[in-house]
């Protein structure tokens, strides 16, 4: 039999980053009756199958009415191989101008199979040499660590601190890496309601981060899946990309939380120029497109049409389109933090009070590992995520992440009772 | 400005494989009025927007009626994050049993973003070490070479010969590689109406290839996008995978030609076992799934639903569903080979007469390069593909590929007149 050993396969397959996601998925399958404060899935409350049909129709009509396509060209656009950089780039560019204050040439956009493919394309392009490294603000989204593993790009952690990114540590990590002969290519950061920390950078921190990145000649990879979901009464802060005057920021975009994850449509803004040895100059987006042509060829035209239709149905602004979702997330976030306050008045257990997004981090006076999660699922009927999954090191981590995005206030109440019982029994 | 040099990016970006696709796309954009015998696109004749709607509905009803999902679960399946290995695996398994005689556990399937992602997942898993190499039957589809470049996996060419694969050369290449300390991981082959050669392996060659692969302890990567399109009167030959009794073959599947490319849905059959150091044994499909979770997370559920609906609408057989397309391709193939015979009676120009598929290779008594293609587009108004794009080396190649899949017989007639004028002017 032509069978294999895992140790003969790529090293990523035995790496924690790739197995973490698997473990977390499996545990929720094993305990389907446990209440899940683990999954970072969007709310399903307003999903309607009819919308898929109407979005497809709206996008088809747009191709005819606004772009002047004949029927054959419309069919070809939806069914056939097409433009590698995508077919909704002009709508995404309009969306970025309206919702994010980012003015970008649609040619500098690559529409991708979710934000995850965007990360893979960018890291694949940037990893040219064994000396290349990626800086990642820690604790970090598992997807960026996993993508880095797939392209053999080592990750150096930068402390997140209390403000979302510790700029002194960033400079220290860059300098130490360069002293070792390494080449830091970029720093990955989620400035708005980060997964998993829940932290956001304020405007001043964003400006300073841009200054430091310029001083250190570092690209910034800005990932922004949650920016449209500030808590009640909180104003949105401008994205790094909208403050970026020197093409320092590669912006990674997602429609998973603002439209629907099942389309798997994301994008990257890559307006950096790339000079070739023959003196010609192109856009980084075009280099990423070449890589994309060998990863997925195109992003599904059918899926792009659904997202294009949703954008068109909302005049290309998703802020207004997500008011109901924003209210749900804000209420849930408050239910979690208020619920924790009611159950843990003593100070032994602490938690973050994020200004938006999906995630609250709870710190407890004991190590939180996968065994405790298993116990929690089995004996207490509540799921959450050990924060250890978001750190690269092996040290014990005494915190867990709660996600409030796909549960009701009643489920939050019941889940927090169960969590409180678990925590109290550990103390 | 934070701008970049292409030489500071991953080496694949200056590689011919990644730039070839780009060059060929660009030339067809520059000469939109030239008749294209270049693109390997499927026929667009039977595309209908209504089908997208009805396929979505059929798949939704299947989830309810056949799988017992309630409405909430149907919505969740189409809109939300889901199973990494896909949601149409059971239908694809039925399709493989019916159309290909391949009996496979649906758990051994990973549904991918087109066949291209399947290649990337497999090559990423197999490339563990700098000594790993991939064998590819030459001339080769650019997508496999490009995918290999992205994971830094060197490619060794195996002669295709006149039968589709030269088994003596295969053994010689494996032995020479091993003598150099290299580790050949697999051999990529397209046994049916290959792109670009048009050649097919007969049944006896397939059996011998499986025997040689077993003797050499080599995996085979079988890619089969064109198998449903034999020429008129030609019987289909069993796939390698259906003849494979020892899990020697990883089967790469595509719906781009048999359903629609715009869905971007493909798959891989990976029923090999993988043993972990702790003694546990899983499926290669599950290892590929871990990689997929870091490349695209999921294949678009909306796109899978369209393909699932098309399969359901045809009782999971695409042979019958593609009779009209098969007839078009068979007629066109004949129009090309008959048309060449009528125009080049002398013997100085020769061509293959494939038993099916999309491609005819024309050999001429002069080197065929990109400059000649440019001249052909500009001065003669006909596009085709220099065969040099499908070879890894730099030597002059005196052949060109004609594709007959997305043109009419009248266009073929006109295109061959133009091509004949070009060739005659070069003689």
UniProtKB/TrEMBL annotation, chains A, B:
Signal peptide: none annotated. Its cofactor is pyridoxal 5'-phosphate. GO terms for biological process: alpha-amino acid metabolic process. GO terms for molecular function: pyridoxal phosphate binding; transaminase activity. Keywords: Aminotransferase, Pyridoxal phosphate, Transferase. It comes from the Bacteria. Pfam families: Aminotran_1_2 (PF00155). This is (S)-3,5-dihydroxyphenylglycine transaminase.
